[in-house]
Design a protein that fits this description.
The chain is α+β, with helices and mostly antiparallel strands. Helices cover about 35% and strands about 20% of the residues. It folds into three domains: about 90 residues, Phosphorylase Kinase, domain 1 (2-Layer Sandwich); about 190 residues, Transferase(Phosphotransferase) domain 1 (Transferase(Phosphotransferase), domain 1), CATH 1.10.510; about 100 residues, Yope Regulator, Chain: A, CATH 3.30.1460.
Length: about 425
Amino acid sequence: MTLLKKPVELETAFNVYTLSEQLGEGGAGRVYGGVDTTGAEVAVKVLTNHSTDKRRRFKNEIGFLSRNRHANIVTVTDHGLSSTGAVRGPFYVMRRFAGNLRGVLERRLETDDAMALFVQIIDGVEAAHLQHVTHRDLKPENVLTNAAGDTVAVADFGVARFTEENLATLVETTVTTRLANFQYAAPEQRVPGRTVTAAADIYALGLMLNELFTGVVPHGTDYRSIATAAPDYAFLDPIVAAMIRQDPNERPASIAELKGLIQKHRAEAVSLQRISAIDAVVIPAGEVDDPLAHEPPKLVAAEFQDGTLRMQLDRPVNQNWVHALHNMGNFSAVMGVPPTAFQFNGADVTVNVSDHSVQSVIDYFKAWLPVATSVLRTRLRENAERAKQERIQQLQRERAAEERNLRINQSLRI
């Protein structure tokens, strides 16, 4: 960290940022620290290499991080272009972090804390992979931490590979482009012309996992194992060995597969993730993501004609919500018009009623809407918890079977 001789102001359409210190510098840009107009601390990354390729990559990085809502990936909150003054070039703004994983590694970590940090890191990387983004430059310096060092966010997607549908502008990587820090680069990243996939991120994560427990980045053989530093976590050693295999095809195929290997031993340590149906944000598996389970539909129109009441909701409902309405348990209703009498087709609702009971039927129906939503939410949570427990039990059975096979094979005599 270096204090600037004179504060620098960067202005966007919505804010003014006063920069007072330089936090770091890389091959393509600098990171500054400062405050916005409200006094909130921010970090600002400025592109200093203005080549066409670097600008395109910076544009893609801003696009991805602006859409991000995952807690373990840095989020861009603003961006702009400075064409005058001491700091010039495209820039983006993010929350200020206290440090990075390198600083945490320099302190002695408790083993449980090391595992907790690694879980957050792979959650962030998995969130990127699920959105078809490969980081390709994972290292402790690119994992930012809060002041306590117990919360992390993956940063610096400047050399990430984005699939074409996620690109702001298509960037082709030439065989001469340097993609990653040499110490954490996968073997395929060190050979010109080799295809670099998500397997390279798995490799870097394997190095970082071993380093979190031992302080050693494993290269070659006879490196310090996790078993020697944390016997309770000795089960991680074969996982690390699989992650850093020379052939990318022999590494775990995905973060989900990696989590499965860990779950067989510590099911509570990691959580599967998937894309939420609500807003395409990666969330822990088991979280209720049906919008109808959180906000009930609203009645927006009603018309009675010849014994039939036709109503319209503000949005379509699905069969799960209808089933919850039909099975609410205790309810009040007009005689002969229970919840099961209502028929649904998207947002349209029809029911046969007598002339004198139309308004009462409407009033009861409106009262049922939040009840049905509550019932749906409870049932989805129960189903998710049941599925989670079934998966844990299955993993435990797989682990027991593997341990049994190992015992038998170790006892064989040829």
